[in-house]
């Protein structure tokens, strides 16, 4: 059945209230495109998926930058590329507990959602997806995504289970955000290679792009954990 959608004369996109009805989504829960500089923050998996489905049904291309927050210039370089190459830009901020080993710094990992939100707005982010662990790993959760071989070397040899946590959460984020393209820094090059392998092996319909390392004035690669260092 052919449906005629009302087109927004300003933006050239279908009217989202009507689109929500056509797709049988509750209109009250449908997220509309940004009409000003305000960045939406979504914390629910269901709402994030619904928002993305609406955008994709309207033919809009989604760029995605997954992070653990405490943003720095390296993250902003990823957002800049995403902003240039898609209609919509989504940033996730989630400190993923399953990639931290016993005795590692999960509890102490730096967090500042308010500052991250301000930086995201300046970078033109449309949506911040910032779920709680209970949203990502609800009661009864029992699944895991592992990539064999490449995860046993280098960082993987000294941090058993780390990359399994990474691939699991990234695959979940891809299923939630439904991006067309996702950006990762070359700083974590082994992680980038592992994610590319996972996307190929599992036939995930998106492009993975690596972005050059951004360094401090003294040459140190920028990292959220640099805040642990003293002068």
Describe the model:
By secondary structure, the protein is α/β, with parallel strands linked by helices. It folds into 2 domains: 1-30, no CATH class; 34-228, HUPs (Rossmann fold, 3-Layer(aba) Sandwich), CATH 3.40.50. 34% of the residues lie in helices and 12% in strands. The chain is built from 8 helices and 6 strands. It has helices at 16-22, 45-57, 73-84, 113-122, 133-136, 155-158, 162-177, 189-201, and strands spanning 40-42, 62-67, 88-93, 127-129, 181-185, 207-211. α7 (162-177) crosses α8. The radius of gyration is 18 Å and the shape is globular. The N and C termini lie far apart (66 Å). The model is unreliable at 1-17 and 22-35 (pLDDT under 50).
Report the CATH architecture of the largest domain.
3-Layer(aba) Sandwich
Radius of gyration: 18 Å
* C-alpha end-to-end distance: 66 Å
Based on secondary structure, the structural category is alpha/beta
Characteristics:
Rossmann fold, six-stranded parallel β-sheet, 34% helix, globular, disordered N terminus, alpha/beta, 231 residues, 8 helices
Entry summary:
With 231 residues, the chain is an alpha/beta fold. Helices cover 34% and strands 12% of the residues.
Question: Helices, strands, pairings?
Answer:
Elements: H1 16-22, E1 40-42, H2 45-57, E2 62-67, H3 73-84, E3 88-93, H4 113-122, E4 127-129, H5 133-136, H6 155-158, H7 162-177, E5 181-185, H8 189-201, E6 207-211
Parallel strand pairs: 1-4, 2-3, 2-5, 3-4, 5-6
